[in-house]
Amino acid sequence: MRSYIRKCINDMHIKKKNKENEKYSGFTNIEEPELYNANGEQMNVWYLRDNQSWTYPYSFTYGRMPLHLFWDRYSFRLPIHVYSHNYITETKGNPQKKYAYLIESEAIFPGDYEIFDRNPGLSNEFDKIFTHSAKILNNYSNAIYVPAAGVYYGTKHGGGQLDEKLYLKKDRNISIVSSDKNMCHLHKVRMEIARYLKNTGKGDVFGTFDGGKNIKIAESLTNYRYSFAIENNINEFYFTEKLLNCFASMTIPIYLGAEKIDKFFNKDGIIIIKEKDLENIDNIIDKCNKADYEDRKEAILDNFERVKKYLCVEDFLYETYPELFSR
Questions:
Q1: Quick one: what percent of the chain has pLDDT higher than 70?
Q2: Model's pTM, two decimal places?
């Protein structure tokens, strides 16, 4: 029965895709317009069909303007196309290159990460698949790693400034930011930590989880030595701005997240925890103090330098895979 249902879904996808292609088959591709960044360098202009970054249409990193890539969400006649999440099965026209993009959390959009399993052969329609998903990276030869987020800290949206001496200005100890989102298990875990810190006074709490207000992330990081960073999903390579903002502000993350984070960052500048460790959360908190922070100075500075690679997702893509941008 499952194989029959999968076949029906696949047939529906093929029919829909063929119908779409027929609709746009009469259009010829156009050349990229000449668009230049603030440094006078010509940018790449790609067509993007996406509904994940609608709040900030210029980048998948809120508040940052990519240096080398401009997303055009209208001109499907451009030669390079990118389709994210559910739009992966709704492509348009006949581009020269076509990329799929899975960036959001698997815990929030689990079905999107099964899209290639449900549609055999679909992965071969794309030149590359951009993702952080270990499963897709392992199962599809054309999948390449792209981080799930960039850095908000240091933008107008996030507040703060990247400062090489910020480690000298820390006069608060522990913070956490928690929204009132309750869409997955780790949302609940984050709120439980926030409630505990608020009720015990063992940390400063920010966010909307208890009727509080939205803040610029710098308010919770600039003056703090430590901050709880709880991802929405546990995956080998899934880390987001929750972690990256800490490194950019020289704050040590108390981190529940990517299982292989040491492949990317200096683990001596991270307090890595498991969910079971939260049963004795005071043991974690009691080890967070000025002396411990100063002992980790070398790792803090190292991670501050490493995080610069991840400031903007699109710039990471350009710098890591330059062959995708060759004209």
A1: 91
A2: 0.90
Are the CB atoms for 152 and 177 separated by under 8 Å?
no
* H/E segment holding residue 83: strand 80-84
Amino acid at position 225, single letter: R
- Write a three-state SS string for 214-270: CCCHHHHCCCEEEEEEECCCCCCCCCCHHHHHHHHCCCEEEEECCCCHHHCCCHHHC
The conformation of residue 190, written as its DSSP 8-state character, comes to H
Cβ contacts of 306 within 8 Å, gap of 6 or more: 247, 264, 265, 266
Q: pLDDT tens for residues 230-239?
A: 999 999 999 9
Please state the domain extents for the chain.
Answer: 2-148+312-325, 166-310
Instruction: Tell me: pLDDT of 125 over 80.
Output: yes
Neighbour count for residue 142 (Cβ, 10 Å): 13
- Residues in CB range of 51: below 8 A, 6 or more apart: 84, 85, 86, 87
Give yes or no for a contact between 123 and 129, defined as CB atoms under 8 angstroms apart: yes
Reply yes or no on domain 166-310 having CATH 3.40.50.11660: yes
> In this structure, how many other beta carbons lie within 10 angstroms of the beta carbon of residue 232?
23
Q: How many helices (H) and strands (E) does the chain have?
A: 9, 11
Q: What is d(CA 126, CA 291) in angstroms, rounded to the nearest whole number?
A: 51
Residues ≥6 apart with Cβ < 8 Å to 101: 50, 82, 83, 84, 85, 129, 130, 131, 146
Query: What CA–CA distance (Å, rounded) separates 235 from 109?
Result: 14
